[in-house]
């Protein structure tokens, strides 16, 4: 008798769980919906980033720093605002395909780690008007580093991906740098 009761309790629980699962999927709300899709687009981009701190018209300027920044080997606490050009080749006079706008700041106390908060916007061909946003630590002294892409607009709506950056040239005196980027982005059709 006891075991029969247990079995009916079990059957009742199973039925309740099934009902609950059905109720979840067949209970639409007016304000949201879910659509399953697996149609993915992978975009690969290759360009060069020109960060110019020197000269009359720098593309990166220091906008803030802490009182301790000048005593820090990594300039910890300094913050730069940038509007850097993106070109097809490492030569600054090669074709401009977009810009990188935003900020980077020194976020590492013991080694150089720049916190990159930048939107990369494009002005060429079908990519004109599209952008992706990058948010990552950039260990800029490493020859190659990987950074996360967390979103985008236009052709890069719902972007997720990563950028591989490799310093092409850097001037230790001025801080000017040219950096090659290989970017992989996944979006949906
Ligand atoms: C830190 O150094 C910069 C560049 O040499 C200088 O412009 C700035 O005044 C210094 N800041 C402080 C707080 O000493
Ligand atoms: C990007 O990829 C190309 C071709 O695979 C390679 O030659 C180049 O070194 C890469 N650049 C970076 C910045 O990784």
TrEMBL record:
Keywords: Apoplast, Secreted, Signal. Dirigent proteins impart stereoselectivity on the phenoxy radical-coupling reaction, yielding optically active lignans from two molecules of coniferyl alcohol in the biosynthesis of lignans, flavonolignans, and alkaloids and thus plays a central role in plant secondary metabolism. Its main location: secreted. Homodimer. This is Dirigent protein. Belongs to the plant dirigent protein family. It is found in: Secreted, Extracellular space, Apoplast. Gene3D superfamilies: Allene oxide cyclase-like. Residues 1-23 form the signal peptide. InterPro entries: Allene_oxi_cyc_Dirigent, Dirigent.
């Amino acid at each position: 008798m006891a075991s029969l009761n247990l079995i009916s309790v079990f059957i009742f629980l199973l039925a309740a769980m099934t009902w609950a699962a059905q109720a979840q999927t067949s209970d639409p709300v007016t304000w949201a919906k879910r659509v399953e899709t697996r149609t993915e687009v992978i975009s690969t981009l290759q360009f060069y980033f020109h960060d110019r701190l020197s000269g009359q018209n720098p593309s990166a300027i220091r906008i803030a720093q802490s009182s301790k920044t000048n005593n820090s080997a990594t300039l910890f606490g300094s913050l730069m605002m940038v509007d850097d050009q993106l070109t097809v080749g490492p030569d600054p006079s090669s074709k401009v395909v977009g810009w990188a706008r935003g900020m980077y700041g020194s976020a590492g106390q013991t080694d150089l780690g720049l916190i990159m908060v930048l939107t990369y916007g494009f002005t060429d061909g079908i990519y004109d008007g599209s952008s992706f946003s990058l948010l990552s630590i950039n260990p800029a002294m490493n020859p190659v580093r990987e950074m996360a892409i967390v979103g985008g607009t236009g052709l890069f709506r719902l972007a997720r991906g990563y950028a591989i950056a490799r310093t092409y040239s850097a001037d230790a005196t001025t801080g000017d740098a040219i950096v090659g980027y290989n970017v992989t982005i996944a979006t949906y059709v």
